[in-house]
Design a protein that fits this description.
The structure is a single chain. The protein is mainly alpha-helical. The chain is built from 22 helices and no strands. Helix 2 packs across helix 6. It is globular, with a radius of gyration of 24 Å.
Length: 529
């Protein structure tokens, strides 16, 4: 690959990463005002069907376009082959999307009943229409990414998310203002997914038309044979399934919760309204989890291109160094976020969601931040080595474990059991990915002394928030906001000083980090003090 092509690819990756981070932040943040508007029961209604939308967007954003771009890149220079690939892929996308739409629309009542709440059927039907948009979204994103042009995907993804969030909040507000019930409010909110997808298609089509106008674009070709068509379609579907399973890991865990938590609580004798409210409180953990993942995964995954480049160029020393640094940063950031969220959860819960209800449930859920961050990093490294199947198998096993443990614990411990089953399922996936990576590249990933220093830093960081909560807790929402923010700032500062003073990250590592020179200067200053 030429230097010019590499620079273009890196610039495109930066655009795509920025758009992904913006979308994740928006996706997490809007749920706070939405929950404040509709309450815990309204939030339960929305979150019950949200995983279905999440799967559609994973297919249209993360799974299918990645495989399309990979197949096009492999056929670079062979226009005929690229045209055949596009035709086969488009045909397969249409078959899959129409099949999913028909299934969800016709069996919405059955799915809602399996979730334990037949009234959810209308929301499921609203969401089913999003799958009809999937072929155009995935096809054009895959085309642009396959040609190294990430900007159309980045812009369409951001605009799509902004419009979706706006319609969710406006639609729910209008529904409540007109006196409609919470299920109608949920349906109006969910329609934002469809209109957001339409806006994404318009933007992608605009960029594609501009490309055609200057002699670009890629028109699907006629197949040479039926075997050629079927073969490409099967390869595309097989690779897509593996990538989509990993990309939608947290969405699939939410989907298990949608089928298990409320239904099992209701079956165990908890009154319907209370069970819905408890599930809504449990779902408060999702936006907190997403926000927690933004920093840890965003910064750590910025190192993945460096790992890939070192592997392609067969620079074994640099490869091992890059992998060790990526895992170390993930451990440090996700560890700090997890412990920090646990110790400030009571005031944070009240600050965001009006009441401190379910604080213990959310604290037990927070290890998911640490485990998910590690899984994302380990699976990304494994995929860089071509091991696409291993993380997907791990996710499948983790889901089965979560389902079994949830079936045992939820009837006895309600949402506490759901939190525990989620963390155990994620732990299983993490172990599988770790073992596979150890077999792939035989180096010690973590130093024992580093782990001990990290534990000491996390313990010190937790002291101030714990003392604040023990000695002078606030019981108003405004007071809790002050307590949560103050505890986070002071605790974070203590952790940063300790991490720099005792060199959790070495001076050579700062070169690869954002603001690395400033962190290195601060590290030297702290060391002298």
């Amino acid at each position: 690959m030429s230097e010019r092509s590499m620079k273009r690819l890196m610039k495109g990756a930066a655009w795509l990463t920025a758009a992904s981070l913006i979308s994740k932040i928006l996706s997490a943040v809007y749920r706070v005002p939405f929950q404040n508007m509709v309450g815990d029961v309204g939030f339960y209604i929305f979150q019950q069907v949200y995983p279905i939308y999440g799967i559609a967007m994973t297919l249209a954003l993360g799974g299918f376009p990645v495989v399309i771009s990979k197949m096009l890149a492999e056929a670079e220079g062979d226009l005929r082959r690229q045209q055949i690939i596009m035709r086969a892929v488009l045909r397969m996308l249409r078959i899959v999307s129409v099949a999913l739409f028909i299934f969800l629309f016709l069996f919405a009542g059955l799915i809602a009943t399996m979730m334990g709440d037949p009234a959810l059927s209308e929301l499921i039907r609203v969401i089913s229409f999003v799958f009809l948009l999937m072929p155009n979204l995935a096809f054009m994103r895959g085309y642009f990414q396959g040609n190294g042009d990430m900007i159309p995907t980045a812009i369409s993804q951001t605009v799509e998310q902004i419009i979706r969030v706006a319609i969710i909040l406006i639609g729910a507000g209008l529904a409540l203002h007109m006196g409609l019930d919470l299920y109608d409010a949920g349906s109006m909110a969910m329609s934002g997914a469809f209109f957001g997808g339409v806006s994404g298609i318009f933007i992608l089509r605009h960029f594609y038309n501009k490309k055609v106008a200057v002699g670009g674009g890629l028109q699907p070709a006629v197949f040479a044979s039926k075997e050629e068509k079927v073969g490409i379609g099967r390869i595309f579907l097989r690779q897509s399934v593996a990538i989509c399973v990993v990309s939608s890991m947290l969405i699939l865990f939410q989907l298990v919760d949608s089928f298990q938590v409320y239904r099992l609580m209701s079956d165990s004798g908890i009154p319907d309204f209370i069970a819905k409210s408890l599930k809504g409180i449990y779902d408060r953990g999702q936006p907190i989890l997403q926000l927690g993942l933004v920093l840890s995964t965003g910064l750590a995954l910025a190192l993945v291109p460096m790992i890939t480049a070192a592997r392609v160029q067969n620079q074994q020393k640099e490869l091992k160094r890059s992998i060790l640094l990526a895992i170390k940063i993930t451990l440090i950031l996700s560890g700090a976020e997890t412990v920090g969220l646990i110790v400030i959860m009571r005031p944070l819960n009240q600050m965001l969601f009006q009441t401190p209800d379910g604080t213990l449930v959310l604290q037990l859920f927070m290890p998911a931040v640490f485990l998910s961050s590690l899984i994302v990093m380990l699976s990304s490294i494994l995929q860089g080595f071509g091991k696409i199947i291993v993380p997907a198998v791990g996710v499948g096993i983790g889901l089965i474990v979560k389902w079994i443990i949830g079936s045992i614990l939820i009837p006895q411990f309600a949402t506490i059991g759901a939190s525990i089953s989620t963390c155990i399922g994620l732990f299983i996936i993490c172990v599988i990915c770790y073992i596979s990576l150890k077999q792939t590249i035989r180096v010690p990933f973590v130093e024992r002394s580093m782990i001990l220093r990290l534990i000491a830093a996390l313990a010190l960081m937790a002291v101030v928030p714990c003392l604040f909560e023990w000695l002078a807790p606030f019981d108003t929402r405004l007071g809790s906001a002050f307590q949560a923010i103050t505890s986070a700032v002071v605790g974070g500062a203590v952790f940063l000083v300790f991490a720099l003073r005792y060199k959790l990250i070495g001076p050579k590592d700062f070169v690869f980090l954002p603001f690395g020179s400033k962190l290195l200067a601060l590290s030297k200053l702290v060391a002298r003090k």
